[in-house]
Amino acid sequence: MLRITDEIVLQDWELTESFVRSSGPGGQNVNKVSTAVELRFEAERSPNLPAEVKARLRRLAGWRWSGEGALIVTVETHRSQAMNRVEARDKLRDLILRALERPKPRRATRPTLSSVRRRLDAKARRGVVKAGRGPVDDDV
Predict the structure, then answer these.
(1) Is residue 16 one of the residues assigned to a domain?
(2) What confidence tier does 10 reach under pLDDT thresholds 50, 70, 90?
(3) What CATH number does residue 31 fall under?
């Protein structure tokens, strides 16, 4: 069981942990011990998350979202399996908390008069520079 907020608690059936061997340096320990953690959260089937939160979570997850609708978090930063498990759960919790935040609605505004004037002046200056260019005279 993983508590995200007071209202949202992920059940054990929604989370699956598997352990694989880490890559990178670490000596013989890397070749013998499976310390990397792959935490799989069945987000699409989860009854604890509203639909709009699932959609934001899918967008935030990016390549970590599988075709079956699961979010896969992989951690192999520590040499200890227990520390990697804790970090994987923290990463999942942080990702879900970010998905819970509703984006602030964008309100269209008109550009100010001075910003329009600055933009047009910059374009005019650039036009003068380009107008000064011409064909190259090779006979000079």
Answers:
(1) yes
(2) confident
(3) 3.30.160.20
